[in-house]
Amino acid sequence: MAIKITGDALTIEDVVAVARHGEKIALDKGAVERIKTCRAMLEKKINAREIMYGVNTGIGEFSEVVLTPEQVEKFQTFLVYNHAAGIGDPCPVEQVRAAMLGRINVHAHGNSGCRPVITQTLCDMLNRGVTPMVCQKGSVGACGDLAPMSQIALVIIGEGEAYYKDERLPAQEAMKRAGIEILRFKARDGLAIINGSNLVTGMGCLMIYDTERWLKQAEIAAAMTLEALHANMRPYQGLLHELRGFKGAVTSARNIRQCIEGSDFLKGGKAKVQDAYSMRSTPQVIGAARDHLAHTRRQFEIELNGVGDNPIFVPEQDLCLTGANFQGSPISLPLDMVGAAICMVCVLSERRLNRLLNPALSVGLPAFLTKGAGMFSGLMLSQYTAGMMIVEQRILSVPGCVQSIPAAADQEDFVSMGMNTALKTEQILKNAYGILGIEFMAAAQALDFRDFKPGQGTRAAYEAIRKVVDYLDEDRPLYPDHNNIAALVTRCDILEAVEEKVGELGTSF
Known about the structure:
Elements: E1 3-5, H1 12-19, E2 25-27, H2 29-47, H3 69-83, E3 87-90, H4 93-107, H5 116-128, E4 130-132, E5 135-137, H6 146-156, E6 161-164, E7 167-170, H7 171-178, H8 189-194, H9 198-228, H10 238-244, H11 247-260, H12 277-280, H13 282-304, E8 312-314, E9 319-321, H14 329-357, H15 380-396, H16 418-447, H17 456-466, H18 479-491, H19 493-502
Parallel strand pairs: 1-2
Antiparallel strand pairs: 3-5, 4-6, 6-7, 8-9
């Protein structure tokens, strides 16, 4: 059944379903009526020659320029032409689809003033698989994602380029093949498509979903390493974390215990009174990331279901409100910190990796997890690779939300730089798959040197790893293993194997 678009009920999971998995959508009847009512109010105001920003005035620094009635409709096309000024590689199809879904949901409130046919055309494009080609770079995340959203708007009028059935085509040809009518913009139509932070929102929704699943895998990797290092498991008792009260830490400790349950290691054996911070602080660190991610999820779902536009029309009160509801700061700030949180958890992962490889810290494991030390170097260089990616993450963790550069003759003198934040957070997450994958490789290798039966969850993880990375008996080129394990983590194969064995791991939202 198609997902109903009402304006106020989309979830991050809905975005993933539509953007990534092709779920169909349908505009709610109430939404259609609200869009019609708003358009009727707008046309009444246009006929009365009421001055409205972006309808019968220029935009930005030209907002004081009043357009003639003859210019009003043409202006919307020139507006989209002018703003389709991005650069760089195309965005992935799923990100553009997520942006389109978000924009449709904004229109569904009935406060944007476009014609209903504009919103329905966006719906048809999603349902029939026409995805505009959108350049990754160009948005400053204020006045919305103007450059990328303009490339979406171009396709509606048969210009620009689009993907259809995995083929990149001129927009007119893509729309023709999909059986979607080409439109011509009338008053307000173009600005109603482009004036919101919808691409950053769509990208963020996908990253929030993926980061939650990555954090679960970080807990699985931690569980494997803790077993391999004969950790003291008292720091993972639920009561300890409940006494402090952070929900993320409670969840993280429970997930790690769930993975280790059934291990012979839990039956006793020698353990230190206190382990190093990288071992006993894992629930607190991953838990902090979980708590921030839960906050970020709330912020993005507010944005996803809010009216991000300018101007905003309120038919019930016959009002045209101008402001800055396109401003990306409410989402760029938390998304910045998602990147920092991922980096923080990766630093913790690398420190546990170090304890697996360093014979002074590994509780009897061979140096660099190789039996042939000297002749062989084992996983020594894997740590180099993890370290390089962490340094890149640290560089990218510098906040983007404070990097405003004024634009439009200082009319737009503070911008969110939300697209910079989204792109760098995306790269931080890509690195995180490889960093965590290297810990998984080392933990599996370490468990091969132990003589106890691991927990049900950690055993399932071990078996999933061994499907793509063999035991390192003697040195071999490791780059295929690194790439294979990173892909395994990206696909969440380890998570799925563990949850099939021990049940679903907890979340913190």
